[in-house]
Amino acid sequence: MTLRNRLRLLGVAGLALFTVSASLPPATASGAQETRHPSGGGLSAVIRYTEYGIPHIVAKDYAQLGFGTGWAQAADQVCTLADGFLTVRGERSRFFGPDAATDYSLSSAATNLSSDLYFRGVRDSGTVERLLKSPAPAGPSRDVKETMRGFAAGYNAWIEQNRITDPACRGASWVRPVTALDVAARGYALAVLGGQGRGIDGITAAQPPTAAPPAAGVTPEEAATAAERLLSAQNADMGSNAVAFDGSTTVNGRGLLLGNPHYPWQGGRRFWQAQQTIPGELNVSGASLLGATTISIGHNADVAWSHTVATGVTLNLHQLKLDPADPTAYLVDGKRERMTKRTVSVPVKGAADVTRTQWWTRYGPVVTSMGAALPLPWTASTAYALYDPNAENMRMADTGLGFSKARGTRDVERSLHRNQGMPWVNTIAADRAGHSFFSQSQVLPRITDELAERCSTPLGRATYPASGLAVLDGSRTDCALGSDPDAVQPGIFGPGRMPVLKNQPYVENSNDSAWLTNAERPLTGYERVFGTIATPRSMRTRGAVEDVASMADRGRLRVGDLQRQQFANRAPAGDLAASAAAKWCAALPGGTAVATDGTPVDVSAACRVLRRWDRSVDSDSRGALLFDRFWRKASSAPAAELWRTPFDPADPVRTPRGLNTAAPVLGRALADAVAELRAAGIPLDARLGDHQFVVRNGKRLPIGGGTESLGIWNKTEPKWNAAGGGYTEVSSGSSYIQAVGWDDSRCPVARTLLTYSQSENPKSPHYSDQTRLYADERWVTSRFCERDIARSPDLRVVRVRERR
């Protein structure tokens, strides 16, 4: 090391040490004080910025760590954060009007008014405050509450001391100081995203029946189909792949982890990358969901973890038997109970406040729909109440904090057991000692198969087997959910009931159920509400299991192998179908297929393109775009029509297979795809990256990867805009990627990539810098240890503090 670098390292370390050992005022603020004094007083932190604007935050304690995190997040994402805080305060209609659509980041609410009515109701009822007062582990720990207090102070200090340059909110009156309660409420919104958050429109629209006939319901069979679609939609913009390899498969006997979460590229569910350090207490790198005060997915010196969206159904319905004389009262064991009436008022831009009533029961809110396809009419005799156990869950941050301080996968499991705070994700982890770990530890309603068999209504007897959504008889106390002795709250499963697999050559999940976590050791014995067993897997799961099982068999794995897997961009659907499709196409009489509208289309050129395609979706692949447009249409057909060999639970990775070239859908799909590309002026053999790209500051960046139906590990869900040149933006897909392993040093071997970069501000230097890396399939070398941070050529050290 040169003398200059030695002095630089000593200087940076000395500044950090001075900062965290300086005498700072003690943390003081109750919830009530927080409202009056949202920023507390005297908080500070040191932020060391390295390449790509990645902050390494050093603080003396949790409040000051939260301060540095809030400051740094605001610097990168102030507009998106401010928009989210507006949501959880129930003030979107006040600034943006009641009828405008939300961005769906924090709920499924279709309009600002619906969103506001729900979140203002949560605020008025004191729900979050009550949960904050619950002693740990039922409620958040003091350390987590201190990070919330500090985050609010850091966010407030940044907006007080800096000029906003992002055009999305520059000069906007809705960018205002926040409180710790706002920060906690944002975390609560994420917790209920798959439960109450999914039914907001039905909750806020629920009103007792009048003389007018109620809305028509659906048959149990239609409800089963609707429930399947509703629950599968959870993965539409959030999915993920993750794999952990144990030491038996690696070059040095240590573990490896590749995490590849698929999340929205815009809005309030973006990840943001950072390192958080309290010397002697905490040292962790990774990414946080915006507004989160702790690391959501990451690694420390000894363990790495990631999450995948799980198949567990995080809500259930209770069918109420109403009092014939009063539709706002219901009967339980023949005894009458009145619903609780909540009156909520929402300020509206340019108009008088809107006041609505919500109706709540012992099970939760009355709901009159779960999306347009699943109406739940409130009649004179029947209503439905939505139970969401995550409405009592403020434990997600503590669970993640436990991961951040873990020294191995055993500690990851202990945090899951103690805190029980993960609402809708699986956890996959690996450690320095060579252990691998998978757990579907979710906060789920305690629906056993026995309970569903005994207590399902006719509607529930259709929906539960099909989707895991239980509809229980709410008029009987013997149909209550009950409790497990190891559960931290009533009505949920305890850790002893969770699907878990440890210390296998690989454990992998791609958003299917836990069954094929390791194809050689299938997990069984869990309740239907967790997911299915011995049912067809998605194309992405099938491809992923093929890939990681092959890697494990090959052995002697390194971090570089994980990096190659991330960008292999193999299309499993292409391997299964492209050759057969090309041969079938070449045999079409006259080289013609008939489009959906009845128009004959010359597809002869497409046959050659499909035959020559390399079965990958790299940005320079020719034929990938044609197959993508063809397969999206063809794969909508039922599996029994599309494949000759049906699904076999004894061979779940290789079935179904054998393209059925007699299926009528193929001709229509190919004719439609060829006509579509020609109308857009796109050559059938165009390079994928020429027509799958994003534009950042006027420059096109080609994007590889592919959509769900292709089965790509590196998932990309692009937006089709034929007039704009093809796929011209990405809505969701690969987001914060990390490939982590260990050698004999104390520094983990880690490569990371935040695909959409740190900031949504087009004026930021970190608006697209990592996106350019992603386009080029390049990585960031993690700077975790002090010596590596000090050696960064872009090192910038900032001490941030509140003004007195």
What do you see in this structure?
The strands form 8 sheets. The chain has a 10-stranded mixed sheet, sandwiched between helices. A 6-stranded antiparallel sheet has the order 20-3-4-29-30-31. Strands 10, 11, 12, 15 and 18 form a 5-stranded mixed sheet that branches. It has 804 residues and is of the alpha+beta class. The radius of gyration is 27 Å and the shape is globular. It has 24 helices and 32 strands.
Q: How many whole angstroms does the radius of gyration measure?
A: 27 Å
Euclidean distance between termini CA atoms: 41 Å
Widest sheet, order of strands: 19-17-16-9-8-7-6-2-1-32
Query: What portion of the residues fall into strands of 2 or more residues?
Result: 15-25%
Fraction in helix: 25-40%
Number of strands: 32
Chain-averaged pLDDT = 94
Q: Pairing-aware structural class of the strands and helices?
A: alpha+beta
Q: Name the shape in a single word.
A: globular
- Strand count, sense and closure of the main sheet? 10 strands, mixed
Parts with pLDDT < 50 across at least 5 consecutive residues: 1-14, 17-40
**SS field, number of helical segments:** 24
Protein name: Acylase
Family: Belongs to the peptidase S45 family.
Keywords: Hydrolase, Signal, Zymogen
InterPro entries: Ntn_hydrolases_N, Penicillin_amidase_A-knob, Penicillin_amidase_dom1, Penicillin_amidase_N_B-knob, S45
